[in-house]
Design a protein that fits this description.
Blueprint: E1 12-17, H1 25-32, E2 40-49, E3 52-58, E4 61-65, H2 67-70, E5 73-76, E6 78-81, E7 84-87
Antiparallel strand pairs: 1-2, 1-5, 2-3, 3-4, 6-7
Length: 88
């Protein structure tokens, strides 16, 4: 699952940040901001128009991310069971 697909207020753990090309500046910047494997992250809120931007919290810091940027962050710690979602 990616961070852009995550329901609000669901704490999960970052697995990885996807690079779309060699020396990807956006992926590098996300890692510099703290989106690294093992770090806890959650979507705090979504914007009013097209659910963009996403307000995301990493540790005690909050960032506004575009959905396309959040889609690069793979997360773990949530499992989908039928129509209901639960954290593990």
């Amino acid at each position: 699952m990616t961070l852009s697909e995550l329901p609000p207020r669901t704490p999960v753990t970052v697995e990885s940040v996807e690079d779309h090309q060699p020396n990807d500046a956006i992926a590098r910047r996300l890692r510099e901001l703290g989106f690294v494997a093992g770090e806890q992250v959650e979507v705090v809120a979504r914007g009013p128009f097209g659910a963009e931007p996403l307000l995301v919290q990493v540790g005690y810091t909050r960032f506004a991310l575009r959905r396309s940027e959040a889609a690069r962050v793979r997360v773990a710690g949530i499992r989908v069971t039928g129509m209901r979602e639960a954290t593990t």
